[in-house]
């Protein structure tokens, strides 16, 4: 069975090198679409594989002696493997592992924003482990 869906991910990040007396935070958000192949959807555990594309926002913030906000944004592509366990006739829950690769195309600092020249863009990646929940509009 093939399914199409929307995906949203939020990841709080651990910051390093925060100035003494300051408070720092960071997060990464992703919104995109995905195409998923369910290998055995009728089973209690249904393995799946998916590919997708989306947009990513990386946000950084520091408050204290040196205050400021900044971020990076760009398009990305992802590949995931996982397994769904049927909880109800329309809801599944299960583990997954994913790899997302992308390029940041713009950067911001405070209220200033600018595109990043193609020559200065590099590919970055995220390796994710987690639990995925899904709600289907029709049961298998």
What does this structure look like?
With 140 residues, the chain is mostly beta strands. It has one domain (2-135): Porin. 0% of the residues lie in helices and 73% in strands. It has strands at residues 2-13, 23-38, 45-63, 68-88, 91-103, 106-109, 112-115, 123-135. It is elongated, with a radius of gyration of 18 Å. The chain starts with a strand and ends in a 5-residue tail after the last strand. The model has no long low-confidence stretch (mean pLDDT 89).
Q: Can you tell me the number of structural domains?
A: 1
Q: Please mark out the parts with pLDDT under 50 across 5 or more consecutive residues, or reply none.
A: none
Report the principal-axis shape: elongated
Distance between the termini: 9 Å
The run of helices and strands is: EEEEEEEE
Mean pLDDT: 89
Helix run count: 0
How many E-type strands?
8
Beta percentage is: over 45%
- Main sheet summary: 8 strands, antiparallel
The percent range for helix content is under 10%
CATH fold-level name: Porin
Sheet/helix structural class: mainly beta
Rg value: 18 Å
CATH class: Mainly Beta
Task: Identify the CATH architecture.
Answer: Beta Barrel
């Amino acid at each position: 069975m093939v399914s199409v869906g929307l995906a949203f991910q939020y990841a709080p990040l651990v910051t390093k090198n925060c100035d003494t007396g300051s408070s720092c935070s960071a997060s990464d958000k992703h919104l995109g679409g995905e195409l998923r192949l369910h290998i055995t959807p009728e089973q209690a555990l249904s393995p799946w594989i998916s590919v997708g594309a989306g947009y990513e926002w990386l946000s950084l913030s520091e408050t204290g002696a040196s205050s400021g906000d900044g971020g990076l944004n760009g398009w990305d592509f992802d590949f995931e493997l996982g397994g769904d366990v049927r909880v109800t006739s329309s809801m599944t829950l299960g583990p997954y592992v994913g790899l997302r690769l992308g390029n940041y195309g713009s950067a911001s600092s405070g209220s200033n924003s600018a595109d990043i020249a193609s020559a200065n863009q590099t590919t970055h990646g995220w390796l994710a482990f987690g639990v995925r929940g899904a709600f289907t509009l029709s049961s298998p």
